[in-house]
Each structure stands twice: as C-alpha cells, then as structure tokens.
C-alpha cells in the first residue's frame, strides 16, 4: 500500500511522456522554417509570387499618394481626417497614410528573393540559371518600382538592400539622398532587364508579372523623373518597336482596359480576382465612398459639347473614368460604359494598372517635347486624342515647347485619370529646371483646395520640402538615425 | 523520516517564496508625458525667459495641470527682443498686468494642431479675448506658418500631457487700438473716418463691449483714393451726394451708407468667403461675398441674367485686427443699391447639376439619389432622407407629365406626410437672388395626385396649404386670380396656385420649403415657382413648352 504514491508517479510520468512525444522538436508544426525553405525551384517561385501578393496590400496607397493632393479627386462623405489633411497639404507626422511600413515589407520580400534564390542553384539541379535570373529580375524590378514610389513621395528614404531574415538582421538606416536612391533604381532595373523574359506564355502572366517591357516602362518613367530625356525615349522605343502593344479602340476603352483588364494596351498591372479583391469598392461606391471625382472634370478637363445634336463625348470622360451624375470614380467600380451598373461588392477585382501603352506614348511625347521637338510630340498626342474622340475645346500649339508641355500634361490628366499618376506628373513638370514651372503646383492647389485654405497653401507650396510627405512618427521613434523632413518639424 | 520530509518541504516552500518576492518597480503614474510648464522649464536654453514670465504671472501653475491648451511659446531671443522694444530691463521688473495680458494672448483653451491653421482666424479666441489669425509665408525657399502676422512657427505640434506647444520666434502682441482708432490713425481713410464721426458710428467702432455678441465688428473701409475714383474728393462731396437730412439720423442716406460698410461679428478674409452673404448694419441690406480667381469680391451678383460687377477687397490692406474687430479695404466706392422688386419666374428644373449634363438636360430624365442625410447630390436642393431618397429630373415632349411644362421638363419629388415613413416629408430649395419687397408666391405644378403641402419661405409658413392633386376650377383669369389660381401654361393639367404673400426683407437667395402634411405619393411634379411683386400682374406671363413667355 505504501507503494501507491510510487505507482501514481509512474503513471503520471508515463502519461506525461506520452503526450509530449516531440518534446525536443522546436520547429513549428504548421509552417516551414528558413532552413527547410530555399531548397527547390518551386519554393523560389512561391517566394516571387508572394512579392506580388504583398503589393496588393499597397494598392490603396498607390491611389492615395498619386491622387489625394492633386485635382482629379475630392474627398467624399466618409473620408477620414487624415485624408482631408492630405488633401489640404496639411499633414502631421502621425497621418496614417504616410506610413511606409507595407512598402518596406514588400521590399524585404524582394530582398529575400535576391539574397536567397542564388543558393538554390546548388541544391536543386532542375533550377536553371535562366530561371534564377528571372526570379531575381522580378524581385529587382519590383523593388525598384517601390523605391520609385517612395522617392517620389518622400524625397529621401532609407535604402535597404539586404534581407531582414530574423531579428538579428534588424539595423537602423539613415536616409539616402534622392539621387542615390534613383541611381540604385536604375541599376536594379538594368540588371533586371537582362534576366527577364519578353513573355511568360500566358496573357495574364504577361500583364500580371514583370516582363522586360514592364522594366522598360518603369525605366522610361524613372529617366523622365531624372530629366534624362534621351534615355527615356530609348526605353519607350523598346516598347513601341516591339509591336506587342497597341491602343484599344475608343469604343472599347473602358470595357477592355478597366472592366476586363489585361488588355492589349496593358504593360504591367496588379491582378485581382475573386479570391483577392481590390480595396476600391468601399473607397469609391457612392453609398459609402471616401473619394469622388472632382466637379471640375466635365467642364474643365474633358470638355462638354453643347453644340452638336448628339453631343460628342470623350471616350475617356463621362461614364468611363467617372460618372458625372454623381461624380463617382467609375474606372474601378463601374460594370458598364454607360454609367448604369456597378460591379458587385464580391466582384470588385478591377486591376491596378501600373503602366499601359498610352502612358508610354505620352511619356515619350513629354521627353521629345523637352528635347525641343514639340511637333513630333504633338503627333503622338494626336494619336491618343483620336483614339478617344477627344473634344477640341483648347487649341494645341504644336510649334512651341511651353504650350505643348502644358497640353501634354493635360492629356495625361485626361488619359490616366485616377490611375495614381496626377500628382507625380504635375510635380515632375513643376520641378524640372530648378522649379521653373512651380506655378503648376499653385494652380493645382487653386483648383483642389477649399477656399479658406488657399492662401496658406500657396505659401507652403513655395517650400520644396512641402512636396514630399513627412516620415511617419513611429519610424522616427524606432529608428533614431532617421531625420524628419524639415518642413514638418 | 517525517521530520526530514517536513524540513524538505519547508525549504522548497521558502525557496519558492524567495523567488517570487522579487522587488517590483511599481509605477504610480499613468503616463510619462510632461505638461506644458514642465516642458518649457526643461529647455531653459530656449524658454527660460518665457518660463520666467509664466512664473511671474502665476500662469505656469495652471499650465501644469490637467486641461487642454494650445500655447504659442516664444523663444528667448523673441522675448528679449520684445523686452528691449518695450524698455523692460528684465522680467522681474516688468509690470505684471502687462505680462499677464501678453501671456494670455499666447494661450488658447483648446488643442489645435497645424491642420486647423487656415487663412483666417483660429476657431477659438485666446484667453486674452482677441482672436489670432494664421497663415503661411515663405522666406528663402522655406515655408513656415505665420501667427498673427507677427511671428513664425519654428517648431510645431509638440504634444504634451495637457495640450500642444507651438514654438514661435517673436512675442505676439494683441491689438491695442480699436477699429476706429486704427482707421483714424491712417490719413488714407480720412474722408471715411470723417463720415464715421459725423454719423455717430465712430463711437460704435471705438467702444469695446464686454458682451461678445456685441463686441466684434467687421468694417469694409474705403480709401480716399477709392472715393476719388468715383469723383468724391472730400467729405463735403460725400455728404452732398448722400445726406438729405442730418448724417446722425439713422434714416439719413449717409448714415445708411456707412452702416452698409459695417458687418456685425468678426470676419477675416479667410472667414468671410465661407458664407454667401452677410447682413450689414444697414437694416435689411446684405453684402454678398465670392472668391473669384482667389480674390475676395463683394456684391458680384446676377439678377435676371445680368451679372453686376463686384468690388474687390484688397488683400494687402485687409485683415487688420483691432481690439474690437477687423477692418478690410475695398478697392472701390460702393453702397447698397436701391432696387425695385422684380418678378422671378423660377424654373425648378434648371440647376447646374443637371445643366452640366448634355446627355440628359433637355433630352431625357435623370434621377438624383441621396445616400445619407448629409449627402447633397444637388447643391441647392435638399430633401428629407427617408425611404425613397430621390429627386428626378423628368423630361418628355409628349408625356402628359411634362408636355406643357416650361421647357417640357419638371422635378418629380416623392413626398409623404409624417404618418408615412417611406417618403421624404420635406424638400428645401435655395431660390435665385430675389430683391427685397412684398411678393405673391405661386407654386406651379402638374396636378395629379392628392397630397397637401405647406409652403415655407425662410421658415415662415405661407397662408395657404396646397393640394397638388387639384387643378384650377372654371372661370376667366381674373376670377381665377381672386380665388388664388392661375393658368400658367398653354394647356395640359398644370396649375399655378397662390401659396400666399411674403415680405422678403433682404436682397439675396432665400429658402423655400415644401412640407407634406397629408397624403403620400411618388408622382408629385413641380415645374415652377413664381415670386411676383404684389403690385404687378399675377396671371401673366404664361409659359410655352419651349420656355418662352406668352403675354396673353
């Protein structure tokens, strides 16, 4: 009987050991750890796909960063105070829309692929060098694209180029100058270009993944931002002479490019589908929208034909880009091109278009015009306008550079409405030649700013630092090497 | 054996206890944030002088207590400059009342960050009582917020336990003179000032009422130059032009001219554009304001299709804050216009939101939906957000709803009495500008479904409720008019019904409101509203389907 405690102990030990069979195994049971990853080519491909998936989380910022401060949109009923502050060019460092965290998260995925994929070459014999170059190229191109967004939005950002794989890798980085960041972007893109294919063999992959043409498109945009016109034209020409892209007809403008997506015009667009919806339904649907189209669009941007019995209409204007009856941003939530039906909430998968052919043509026109070839530039602009059946309510002066540059900018506004380009387009033109055309920014504010804030806004825009976002306060707290943009101190 | 076991147990227990009794560092505060006074004291290099002033005036105590404040804190160099300018040797020897005045002008009892800095005044007054105006300025490529045109913000939005601190480079000084004194001190306004004195308004603009509803005035002053441009070179000329009796008489035209230049309340240029019109001290006369090409223009209005040019307010000579208000400078001579009441034949189905749409206006119907009570798909028409939340523009040249309506279009508005919860109970319009006077108000509609509505003009209930199901009875035009009816179209089931007579006291845009009191229907169709001066013909003109007037 005295042995009873002993037996109890024995049973307890037995029971205990039974339940903790793998008690020495520290690996998680429902995941893969780093040591086991990066062994096969399938894992490399999975990691690359992960980069694209992470981009989807940034779509809202692609839109807001490119449009909120410009004159194509106005905040609607549900807009948050942070969004209103951005519209009023009156941000504080705790504005949640200047948090770049999700961008650096995507950049880290790119860095990881660039750093780890080469090691797979030894472990998986079926993993070819060509396949490796493609994977690394995709990662480099997307990293460059993200840094391009960051450098245009913040001016100076920390340049993180190696992977943060665990807590041991966490390091504080100071900001790099905008020139350094742009140099890195160019070198990344040129490396990527060599390794990337022209096609992946399927239309959705050709549009949804980075091809060599997508790299050319980003490079053209980057060169133009850097005022390297000849380089920009060279990159545009690579796309134009490939004959792989064409403008869709004006009749199909909305349906082909925006409703169906992956049009012949598309060069690189972020894919959404039933499993992965875009954030635009709640942003733009009139029932609960945060953003609506500017009331100035019909009269001042696309023009209204009051003369013809059947009014001429710009194929990119009313009921395509926006709906003038209630100023809904139609590109992302419309389901037809006569302004009647919306996409269903669970069908909200319009793609986010980074670059399309019309964009490239207009980039080329802008570069040519800067090289004193306004007539050649005007021909390109006319191609775009003819396709759209545009209304000639302003006269195009195709012989002079200054008026032509204004016209090209306005044509980009019509063509690329709500595609996250407007602010960057205006800033690029304004800052060229040491801010010789700063007035463009003031005019923009005059159109988009509430009446009781205009005067202060004009004076703030005279400070070049105000054209860039503040660094989010949390980043400043955790990284002591970062310095706030002096405008926001 | 047993004792050993007990000893062992005690040892283990003791060991466990010892382990668990590590000393805890208990935090007794909920936050480490310092409050405003402590923050300023923490940086003597920048704020020792300002801290000294706060202590001397005993304001530092409450700035260290719970609350929500916004403090503009001048740096030492700024305070020193102010001390020098006022011949004060050091903070200790300064007049405490003066210091208190200054300090109170730097404190607001609310938390305001830079996003609330607009072109005009801050939303709350300082503890001193006067308002602070904000703006931005650019020097050498660097933009900064400018406070009260006196100081620049060098560091902003420093968040502390009980509010925000904005660091500024100069001391802010409240205005010491009244509007009257400031104007009198400036020889450019001598004619205007003399008129102020003669009419007795100088005294009004020279007194500071403690009652804040009476304290503030906004004055739109005219320079001698502006008057000279209109051929008035002296006060005598001004008096000769306007005054018929004695200028101090409130009914004298010179007195009214001056009264028309004074707006009760304090309106900086950044604020003045926020409302379309302001009542002046001339009884029943308003000044309208607009922002045209970023300039503030007053009295630019359209009457019956004719645009009357307005008068510019000069930015560089405006926004002059005084102890009892603010004054601006008008670019030209202006006075209230004497206008005769004129009939307004208002087609409800013409408003910018529909006219901008060539595919619909004058071609086909269109429905405006409302998604919340705040939503305003049509700027000048608002309606109760309830059930069927739409107003439709309807257009058809043959359908009996619009075939004889003015321009063959109309507004269809579902309305229901309060007992019905599926339709709007009211709809409210902003009228076109109507000149003040006595008017008969005619509601012109397609008579179809029996719903009775009350009509209100500026909230005032009109004498007759209108049943929009009723058509006009038999009889000739004069017989009909005596019964409050008219045929305003050339045919069809359309009726004009007299809602009543209204005295419009001001010349501006007014509010017209329909309220359903009994019945409920989706197809209530309004075409026009006529405001016709009481002494004019009421039943003519009629309106043809193409919109033209027919005088028979």
Account of the 3D structure:
The complex is a heterodimer of chains A (489) and B (552). Chain A is built from 21 helices and six strands. Chain A is mainly α and 489 residues long. The model of chain A has no long low-confidence stretch (mean pLDDT 91). Chain B has three domains: 36-168, FAS1 domain (Roll), CATH 2.30.180.10; 179-330, FAS1 domain (Roll), CATH 2.30.180.10; 344-550, Jelly Rolls (Sandwich), CATH 2.60.120.260. Chain B is 22% helix and 30% strand. Chain B contains 15 helices and 34 strands. In chain B, strands 17, 18, 20, 21, 24, 28, 29 and 32 form an eight-stranded antiparallel β-sheet that branches. In chain B, strands 2-1-6-5-4-3 form a six-stranded mixed β-sheet. In chain B, strands 19, 23, 25, 26, 27 and 30 form a six-stranded antiparallel β-sheet that branches. In chain B, helix 2 (36-42) crosses helix 3 (44-56) and helix 3 (44-56) crosses helix 4. Chain B is flat. The N and C termini of chain B lie far apart (129 Å).
Question: Care to give the gist of this entry?
Answer:
The complex is a heterodimer of chains A (489) and B (552). Chain A is mainly alpha-helical.
Q: Tell me the name of the CATH class of the domain at 41-248 and 470-488 in chain A.
A: Mainly Alpha
Mean pLDDT of chain B: 89
Architecture (CATH level 2) name of the largest domain in chain B: Sandwich
The overall number of domains of chain B is: 3
- Strand tally of chain B is 34
Q: Order of strands side by side in the largest beta sheet of chain A?
A: 1-3
Portion in strands of chain A: under 5%
Taking pLDDT < 50 over at least 5 consecutive residues as the criterion, the unreliable ranges of chain A are: none
Principal-axis shape of chain A: globular
Secondary structure: helix percent of chain A: 40-55%
Share in helix of chain B? 10-25%
* Biggest sheet architecture of chain A: 2 strands, antiparallel
Low-confidence runs of chain B: none
Shape of chain B: flat
Q: By CATH's scheme, which homologous superfamily of the largest domain in chain B applies?
A: Galactose-binding domain-like
């Amino acid at each position: 009987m005295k042995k009873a405690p002993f037996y109890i102990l024995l049973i307890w030990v037995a029971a205990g050991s039974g339940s903790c069979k793998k008690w020495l195994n520290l690996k998680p049971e429902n995941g893969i750890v780093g040591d086991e990853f990066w062994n096969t080519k399938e894992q490399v491909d999975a990691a690359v796909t992960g980069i694209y998936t992470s981009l989807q989380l940034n779509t809202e910022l692609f839109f807001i960063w490119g449009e909120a401060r410009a004159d194509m949109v106005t905040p609607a009923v549900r807009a948050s105070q942070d969004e209103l502050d951005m519209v009023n060019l009156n941000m504080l460092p705790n504005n949640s829309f200047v948090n770049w965290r999700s961008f650096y998260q995507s950049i880290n995925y790119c860095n990881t692929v660039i750093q780890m994929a080469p090691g797979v070459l030894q472990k998986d014999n079926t993993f070819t060098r060509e396949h490796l170059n493609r994977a690394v190229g995709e990662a480099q191109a997307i990293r460059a694209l993200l840094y391009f967004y960051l450098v245009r939005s913040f001016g100076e950002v920390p340049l993180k180029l190696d992977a943060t794989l665990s807590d041991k890798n966490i390091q504080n980085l100071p900001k790099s100058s905008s020139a350094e960041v742009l140099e890195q972007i160019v070198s990344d893109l040129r490396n990527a270009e060599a390794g990337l294919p022209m096609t992946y063999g399927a239309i959705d992959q050709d549009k949804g993944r980075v091809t060599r043409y997508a790299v050319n498109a980003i490079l053209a945009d980057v060169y133009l931002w850097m005022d390297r016109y000849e380089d920009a034209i060279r990159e545009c020409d690579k796309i134009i002479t490939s004959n792989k892209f064409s403008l869709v007809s004006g009749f199909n403008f909305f349906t082909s490019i925006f409703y169906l997506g992956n049009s012949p015009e598309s060069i690189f667009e972020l894919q959404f589908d039933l499993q992965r919806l875009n954030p635009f339904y709640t942003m733009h649907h009139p029932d609960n929208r945060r953003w609506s189209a500017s009331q100035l669009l019909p009269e001042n941007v696309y023009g209204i034909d009051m003369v013809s019995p059947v009014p001429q209409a710009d194929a990119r204007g009313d009921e395509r880009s926006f709906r003038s009856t209630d100023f809904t941003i139609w590109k992302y939530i419309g389901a037809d091109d006569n302004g009647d039906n919306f996409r269903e909430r669970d069908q909200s998968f319009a793609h986010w278009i980074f670059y399309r052919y019309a964009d490239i043509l207009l980039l080329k026109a802008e570069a040519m015009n800067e090289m004193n070839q306004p007539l050649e530039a005007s021909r390109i602009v006319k191609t775009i306008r003819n396709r759209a059946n545009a209304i000639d309510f302003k006269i195009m002066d195709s012989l002079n550079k200054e008026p032509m540059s204004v016209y090209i900018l306005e044509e980009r506004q019509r063509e690329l409405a709500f595609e996250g380009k407007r602010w960057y387009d205006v800033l690029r033109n304004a800052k060229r030649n040491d801010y010789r055309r700063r007035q463009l920014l003031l005019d923009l504010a005059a159109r988009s700013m509430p009446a009781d804030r205009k005067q202060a806004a004009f004076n703030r825009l005279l400070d070049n630092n105000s054209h860039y976002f503040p660094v989010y306060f949390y980043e400043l707290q955790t990284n002591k090497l970062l310095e706030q943009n002096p405008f926001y101190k | 054996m047993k004792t050993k076991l007990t000893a062992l147990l005690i040892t283990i227990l003791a060991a466990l206890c010892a382990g668990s009794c590590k000393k805890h560092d208990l935090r007794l505060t909920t936050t480490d944030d310092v409050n405003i006074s402590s923050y300023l004291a923490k940086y003597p290099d920048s704020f020792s002088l300002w801290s000294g002033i706060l202590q001397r005036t005993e304001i530092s105590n409450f700035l260290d207590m719970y609350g929500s404040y916004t403090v503009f804190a001048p740096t030492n160099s700024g305070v020193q400059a102010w001390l020098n300018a006022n011949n004060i040797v050091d903070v200790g020897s300064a007049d405490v009342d003066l210091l208190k005045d200054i300090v109170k002008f730097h404190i607001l009892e609310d938390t305001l960050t830079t996003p609330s800095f607009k072109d005009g005044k801050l939303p709350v007054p300082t503890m001193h009582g006067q308002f602070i105006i904000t703006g931005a300025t650019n020097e050498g490529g660097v933009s900064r917020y400018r406070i009260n045109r006196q100081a620049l913000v060098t560091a902003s939005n420093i968040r502390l336990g009980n509010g925000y601190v904005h660091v500024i480079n100069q001391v802010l000084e409240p205005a010491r003179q009244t509007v009257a004194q400031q104007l009198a001190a400036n020889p450019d306004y001598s004619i205007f000032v003399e008129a102020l004195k003669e009419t007795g308004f100088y005294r009004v603009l020279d007194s500071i009422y403690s009652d804040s509803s009476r304290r503030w005035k906004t004055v739109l002053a005219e320079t001698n130059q502006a008057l000279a441009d209109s051929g008035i070179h002296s006060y005598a000329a001004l008096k000769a032009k306007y005054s018929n009796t004695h200028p101090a008489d409130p009914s004298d035209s010179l007195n009214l001219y001056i009264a028309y230049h004074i707006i009760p309340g304090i309106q900086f240029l950044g604020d003045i554009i926020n409302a379309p019109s302001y009542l002046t001290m001339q009884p029943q006369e308003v000044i309208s304001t607009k922002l045209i090409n970023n300039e503030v223009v007053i009295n630019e209005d359209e009457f019956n299709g004719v645009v009357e040019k307005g008068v510019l307010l000069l930015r560089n000579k405006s926004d002059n804050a005084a102890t009892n208000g603010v004054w601006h400078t008008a670019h030209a001579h202006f006075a209230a216009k004497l206008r005769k009441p004129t009939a307004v034949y208002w087609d409800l189905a013409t408003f910018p939101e529909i006219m901008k749409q060539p595919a619909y206006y004058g071609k086909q119907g269109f429905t405006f939906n409302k998604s919340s009570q705040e939503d305003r798909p049509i700027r000048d028409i608002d309606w109760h957000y309830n059930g069927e939340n739409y107003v439709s523009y309807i257009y058809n040249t043959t359908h009996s709803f619009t075939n004889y309506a003015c321009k063959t279009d109309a507004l269809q508005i579902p309305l229901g009495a309060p007992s019905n919860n599926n339709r709007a109970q009211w709809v409210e319009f902003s009228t076109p500008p109507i000149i003040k006077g006595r008017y008969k108000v005619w509601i012109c509609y397609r008579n179809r479904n029996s719903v009775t509505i009350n009509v209100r003009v500026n909230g005032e209930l009109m004498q007759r409720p209108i049943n929009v199901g009723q058509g006009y009875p038999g009889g000739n035009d004069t017989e009909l008019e005596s019964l409050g009816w008219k045929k305003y179209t050339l045919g069809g089931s359309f009726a004009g019904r007299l809602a009543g007579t209204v005295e419009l006291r001001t010349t501006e845009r007014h509010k017209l409101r329909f309220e359903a009191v009994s019945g409920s229907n989706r197809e209530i169709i309004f075409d026009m509203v006529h405001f016709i001066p009481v002494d004019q013909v009421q039943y003519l003109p009629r309106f043809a389907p193409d919109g033209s007037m027919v005088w028979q």
